[in-house]
Amino acid sequence: MPETCTCGTVLVENARFCHRCGRPVGPEPQISEVVDRAELGAAPPVSPANRPVPLPVNFANPIALRVAFMMSLGIIVMQFIPGLNLLSVVWWLAAGWCAVLLYHRTTGLVLSVKAGARLGSITGVLTFVSMAVIFSVTLLFTGKELFDQMIKQNPQISQFMNDPAALIVAMLFALALLFALVVGVCAAGGALGAKFAGRGHTAG
Question: For the chain, what are the domain ranges?
Fold first, then answer.
């Protein structure tokens, strides 16, 4: 940097302009053409390879489990309301449907029909487990009175009660049938919910 300006004025150290005539006397500052994204608050674009992969809908998915558990609790509540408990099949279907909608609302993902059926089946499994636990507890405390009433209504049941092997086989068959019914209806509700919720969206 020159010590004096062309007008003869002695310059101040590190001055960029002459304080008398205003002539620039130093190198012009270079303006960077690169804009820092951090200063603008804009995140860098995410490439498809770096995008997070959504968890598959199964028992290892905590969101799917939480949604299915909430729906199963709703079904159990309906089972204790007189009159509404007669529409169990309807509630199982609605539980699978609502599970898909709640999962979409929570994650923003639109499930495919297959994934919706899986979420519905998870809801059905949890519902069956809850129903089995409640039935077992009820049978533990009121089993004798229940069996006495059944024998009074149909005396032939007493012969059936005296055969433990036949009783166990009948109970296992009834549980298997109930499991298939609950899980199947809930899965159908989940598949229907995913089909209608996925209209106009890309399936996830």
Answer: 1-26, 61-197
